[in-house]
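Technical note accompanying the year-one report. For the benefit of new consortium partners, we illustrate the data format agreed upon in the data management plan: each record pairs a sequence with a C-alpha cell string. No post-processing was applied to the example shown here.
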Amino acid sequence: MRGHKVSKKAARLGFDWTEVEHLLDKITEEVEEFKEAVRAKDRTNMDEELGDILFTLVNAGRFLKINPEEALRKSINKFIFRFSYIEKIIKKEGKTLSDTTPERLEELWQEAKKK
C-alpha cells in the first residue's frame, strides 16, 4: 500500500507514465536486471532489483486502475486453492510432496488450474 500511495502522489505531481507500452517495457527491464543479479549471485542487488520489480508492478496497477493489494490477495487465494488440490490428490495417492516427481506436480498443477 505504501508503494501505491507514493506512486499516486508522484503521479499527481506529474511524474507518471504516459503510455502503457512504456510501462510494460519498464517491467521487462526490471525483470532483466533482476535476472542479471541472480546470475551474478549478487544478493544485495537481487534484493534491490526485486524491490524495483514489485514497485513497478504496483505502479502498473495504479496506472491501469487495478488495486495491487486486491490483485495480490486474489492470486494468493488462487494459489492456496491449487496447492490444496495438489496436496489432497497426493495424499489420496499415499505419497508426500517430497516423494512426488516434479512432472507429476506440474500435471496436478495444470489439473488444478482447470478446476
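Partners are asked to follow this layout when depositing records. The mean pLDDT is 94.
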